[in-house]
Amino acid sequence: MTDLWVRQISGDTEHACYRWYECESGEQGSSTLSVMADRWPEATLTLLIAGADCPSRRLAFRPEEKRHLTRLIPYELEADLAQEIAGLHIAQGSPMPGKHSQRQSHTADNAATDEIASEVVVSYIDRRELHSRITELETAGFDVRHCYAEPLLLPATASCWILRLSGNQVDICWGTGAAASVDLSMLGVLLDSVLHAPAAAGATPPQSLQLEALTSDELEAMKAQVLASVLVQSWQPEVVTMLLSGEWDGICHSRSDGRVDKVSPAIPDLRQGGFARPVRWQKIWRPMRLPLYAAGLAVLTFVSVTLLETQLNNQRFRSLQQDIESVYREIVPAGVLVDAEQQLRAQLGQLRGDSAGGSVLALLDRITPHLAQNSQVSINRLSYNGSSSATARSELQLSVEATSNTAILQFSEQLNNGGLQARAQNMTQSGNRQQASLIITETMP
């Protein structure tokens, strides 16, 4: 996988331009983010941020404070910052040995004892700024592995300070974790402030100042500022100039295997805390979050609508069942009710009959015209027996009443002439009316 070091050199968010260094080949240049993404898809990046955007400083702490260092650092910085500390992302490097300091012992003789104080390098940047820069690169498909403040990477020592001019900005480093960035016109002011407060800056008089720039004109301009400073006149270090072969000269030191020397663990990596490099599953998850959220919302909506429709349909079904049971009880007031719909269908089937035999409706349909012609005859009750496999006939038994037996017999004769088999039996007299049972069957072909 390609390993790149990059630094944004254009503030245009739509067409951001980056200075880049390809570690394996040592090739360097500058191009827009889209061009880089096309050339090195899914490359691993080390992002550098200008010192003006990401200041750094060294803080001393006692051994007993090491455990709570992460919580203490913001309070150490808060007094010196104009910005709200909550809006900053603060990164710290590995603790490193500091200078000897004296403290008063609590022994009986109250003697002064020496202890070695530790120091930690701290870098801080606006959270929104860092989030914007990292998100832009990750959206383009890059894996931002590390992120450093650029001045901290200058290979300076306490005896040999490095002042590097890039554009109109000077990065100055006077030891591990001791660095700053300043406009070229303010370089002399910065050097003089270090002279007047060396302890606060963690600086000691250097033996030499190494000035670095890409052109001779830039070197001369920076040298003039340095020589005019009170620091040089007071400490009188040797001023050395060096022309750089490229933008990354002196920052990236390539080994024979094409890799860049590892950065000291004392240098804070901004990819920590809330901006820690995501693990593999997080890299897969982040670009899929919105589609998965949308799919989850769609599924949730579908399930909710389905449950709502099911609930409404259940209510309609229960209401319909109650209506069916009410109708059944109107038709069949007595008897066991198990399944009203099924019982009604069974009874309706009995009334309709089937293709093999007759039905009560068919018989009544044939009897009704003859009954209408005999106004003297009335029906009190009827019963119906469907056709059986033995007789294959349907039988309808009528309890009729008429003014005379003659009227009953005439009605029976009309039914026989109409193609039915009708016979009257059990004729009795009830007052001035005659009653009889009339048994009617279909004539089978």
TrEMBL record:
Stretches assigned to the GspL periplasmic domain: 284-441
Gene Ontology CC terms, in alphabetical order: Gram-negative-bacterium-type cell wall; plasma membrane; type II protein secretion system complex
Subcellular location: Cell inner membrane
One GO term (biological process): protein secretion by the type II secretion system
Keyword hit for Membrane: yes
Pfam families linked to this entry: GspL_C
Region called Disordered, residue ranges: 92-112
Keywords on record: Cell inner membrane, Cell membrane, Membrane, Protein transport, Transmembrane, Transmembrane helix, Transport
InterPro entries membership: ATPase_NBD, GspL_pp_dom, T2SS_protein-GspL
Species this chain originates from: marine sediment metagenome
Main location: membrane
Name of the protein described by the UniProt record: GspL periplasmic domain-containing protein
